[in-house]
User: Fold Leukotriene B4 receptor from Macaca mulatta.
Amino acid sequence: MVSGNPWSSTLMRLSALTLQVLLTAMNTTSPAASPSLGVGFIVLLAIILLSVALAVGLPGNSFVVWSILKRMKKRSVTALLVLNLALADLAVLLTAPFFLHFLAQGTWSFGLAGCRLCHYVCGVSMYASVLLITAMSLDRSLAVARPFVSQKLRTKAMALRVLAGIWVVSFLLATPVLVYRTVVALKTNMSLCYPKYPSKEHEAFHLIFEALTGFLLPFLAVVASYSDIGRRLQARRFRRSRRTGRLVVLIILAFAAFWLPYHVVNLAEAARALAGQASGSGLVGQRLKLARSVLIALAFLSSSVNPVLYACAGGGLLRSAGVGFVAKLLEGTGSEASSTRRGGSLGQTVRGGPAAQEPGPSESLTASSPLELNELN
Assistant:
């Protein structure tokens, strides 16, 4: 696991720090302060976060996709999951210029179709990301609990079914966005791309549904998986590199840190809707509305952080392997050797040591497999 890793503790504190910064910023909207000052600060902060996400995430995720497609001959299950995670991040980052234009101009200029399409892409990306992360966790848990079953299931056909299922479910779960998003014209000749609900019950349903399916339920599965792994490995010691295992944990913690505040605001607004309070009404409603603007931008930042985590988890690989460090990271290094077929399952050996009888948690992530992309076409 990642005990003692400064990156994990940093990510765990990020959500609390974000909420603290927002609270400080939104205090400027109190009756004693200028409302325009607080709104201006929030808009500026959102623009900065979106700009950083676009500047870091677009080239970073493009590099990850290129590395996996061009630099890896044998793509493990984790490599395919990371590839799809990078594609999901790229999709949402491509919508960032539209939101930056909206924040800078103060009006939505891309019509109803653009409004719904941009938010739908964001929704699909959110669901795909959390489901891919959940799949990584379940893969690790299965490898520890049922190693031989895991080896038999890690085939091209199964990988195709899982990935196709993740994307289909993501497209379906994001459909409420297409129903509720609309363009609202203001009296000031400005337009907003805004959620419009037929009733407060619809609003509460959508917000709770998004929080449950896009965060709470998947992360319960993640926590259960890692609890099972920890329990089973308590008395075991593995000689293999755990670099990729730490990487997966960091990806999970980063996603949680960037998305938890957004879903907390979702649930708070859902509670207000169930209590019959209009969205944005009162001081609390205004602050929640301002918080949502920044937290959406922060969620965009989560789409740019994974390439940074790969570089940090890679350590010396960046210096030794150069532009190929992502491929080396996902293939497995150090004591890990490539896998070979034995008796119809994936058998792995440790360089300089005897053959392992049962794969460790990181083996399920770094094992070479016949899942080459040219076989998937």
Observations:
- The chain is about 70% helix and 5% strand.
